[in-house]
Each structure stands twice: as C-alpha cells, then as structure tokens.
Amino acid sequence: MRGTTPALLLLLLATPAMAQQNFDTIQVRSQALGGGVYMLTGAGGNLGLSVGDDAVFLVDDQFAPLTPKILAAIAAITPKPVRFVFNTHWHGDHTGGNENLGKAGALIVAHENVRKRMSTEQFVQAFNQRVPPSPKGALPVVTFTDGVSFHINGDSLVATHVAPAHTDGDAIVHFAKANVIHMGDLFVSAGLPFVDRSSGGTNAGIVAAADRALAMADDQTKIIPGHGRLADKARLRMWRDALVALHARMRQEIAAGKTVEEVLALKITEPYAREFPGGHERFLRTLYAELSGK
Questions:
Q1: Assigned domain for 179 exists
Q2: In terms of DSSP H, where are the helices of the chain?
Q3: Which of 36, 190, 205, 247 has a Cα-to-Cα distance from 236 of 20 to 30 A?
Q4: How does DSSP classify residue 278?
C-alpha cells in the first residue's frame, strides 16, 4: 500500500503478537498543552493526559510493553497514580496497556462497542488479520452509549460517541476548559484516514466526525490526532476539506465506470501527498468499496 510501511501498520493496528516487537528504543515524550493537559507520544496512538488535584486521567495507552515508560513519563509530571483510562476505540495500539493499568488500579472506560469488539475475535479485512479476544482484565469496566462526562481537575472532560467512522466505537474527548480535543483515529494528521470497515467504520462518518470536532473548536484549540503531530482547527479543516474533495472525485470516477485499479492509476490523492503523505492507496480502496457498494 502506498504510504503504508510495516512500521506504520504497527502504529495503525496492533495485535498481541505484533505488540511483542522490541520497544526498548522507544521513548515516551510529553508535551504540555496548558490547563493540566498533556500529549504523550511513543509508539502507537497518541495519548492525552489530564493531571490536577483530583485524579490522573489518561486517554489511550498504546502497547503493553510501553506501560512502564508511559507511567515514568506521567510520574515526571505528577506523583499521583492513573485513576482513569479512556479508550477512543478498540484497536490494540490504543488499548494494549489496558490490562497493565487496570491491574494497577485504573478504571477503564470506553464506548460499549469497544468492549464488545475486544471481548470477541475480530477480523480486520484491510490487513487480512484476525485479532484474538483481549484478556478479561483489559476490557473496559465502564461503558456508555452516547457520551459521558468527567468533572475532575477543575475541568469538564466530555467524551462523545460519533456515528461509525474509523470504527463503530469511536469517541472524541473534549477537555473543555483546557481547550484541547483528543480525536483518536478519527483524525490522523500525518496522512489520510484508515477506515476499518470490518469494524463498522465508514468514510462518511470520518467527515462527519471532523465536522463535529470543528464545531467544538476555536482558533486556539489544540487537537490531538490519533497519529501524527499536534494539530489545530486550521489543519483539521484542511484535512477534512481534502477528504470531501476526494469523496466527490471518487463518486465521479465510479459514475464513469472506472475500476478501483483505474482510479488508483489516476493518482487523485497526489495534490495532498505533501501535507498528508500516509495511507493513500488504503484510503482509496476503502472509499471506492464504500461508494461503489462493492
């Protein structure tokens, strides 16, 4: 797949077997975003962190072998233990540390579809990959349907489930007072989105989720993407507009009778290769399948 290296595949979707890779050289770094909120990066999905007088709240937790490094990075900020872990969706590069953190006393929270998918074997068609059920200790303990709010650390952390997009269990987390939004893999600032159609995801939902986040944001909002560098409203809008343009072009080519291979040969994502270099072929194949009904 164009723009999809083995390393990127590891970042986008991890199974327990993949998580046995060597993480010794990975460094977990923190970036202060203001209002007691931080973005942590390592290997896997970007983490969101809220610290303060009440509790340590962590959004996503990457891979199990990285838990000690994640906890060390948090300990450099606050001596308090992690009390809450929120999963933005079920993929292993965002939930791999659940079992470790749950055993350490954290309460794991996610949309009900996250628990459902983690509880049973999954098949990710895009990678022709079977993912076994997660251990019981890794499963979310608290689940929700539409949304849930956490009133801690002098802020309101509002999690909102969106229509099927990256998967059918995605949620946006808005740190309201700090003016930070964590989007999980609803937004990938380093490339075009991966839509896991076998997990109920839709390309139309990705655009709708971007619109939802844009409505929450102002020009000072810091936006944590699932992968890639920290972004803002302007970059999210640029990404969203690129997707809308590509959706329209794909509909045009499908109406003209083009096959997916013929569309790929047209290189219609080339104008966006510099700003969003990753995942082009994968994105086009899933978009073609969705819009053509094939």
A1: yes
A2: 6-12, 67-75, 92-95, 98-103, 112-119, 203-216, 233-255, 260-265, 280-292
A3: 36
A4: B
CA distance 52 to 192: 35
In degrees, to the nearest 5, what angle opens at C-alpha 286 toward C-alphas 282 and 291? 145
- Find the domain containing 48 and state its range: 6-233
CB 93 within 8 A of CB 62: yes
Cα angle for residues 150, 153, 159 (degrees, 5° grid): 25
Please tell me the pTM assigned to this model: 0.93
Among 43, 30, 46, 63, smallest CA distance to 223 is for 46
How many independent structural domains does the chain possess?
1
Is the Cβ–Cβ distance between 41 and 22 less than 8 Å? no
CA angle 147, 189, 234 (to 5 degrees): 85
Question: Looking at residue 42, which CATH number applies to its domain?
Answer: 3.60.15.10
Query: Does residue 253 fall inside a structural domain?
Result: no
The verdict on residue 245 lying in a domain is: no
Q: Any residues with CB less than 8 A from the CB of 31 and at least 6 apart, and which? A: 38, 39, 40, 41, 230
Please answer whether residues 276 and 191 qualify as being in contact, where contact means their C-beta atoms are separated by less than 8 angstroms.
Answer: yes
Beta-bridge partner residues of 122 = 131
Each residue's pLDDT, cut to its tens digit, for the chain (294 residues) gives: 333 333 444 444 444 334 446 799 999 999 999 999 999 999 999 999 999 999 999 999 999 999 999 999 999 999 999 999 999 999 999 999 999 999 999 999 999 999 999 999 999 998 899 999 999 999 999 999 999 999 999 999 999 999 999 999 999 999 999 999 999 999 999 999 999 999 999 999 999 999 999 999 999 999 999 999 999 999 999 999 999 999 999 999 999 999 999 999 999 999 999 999 999 999 999 999 999 998
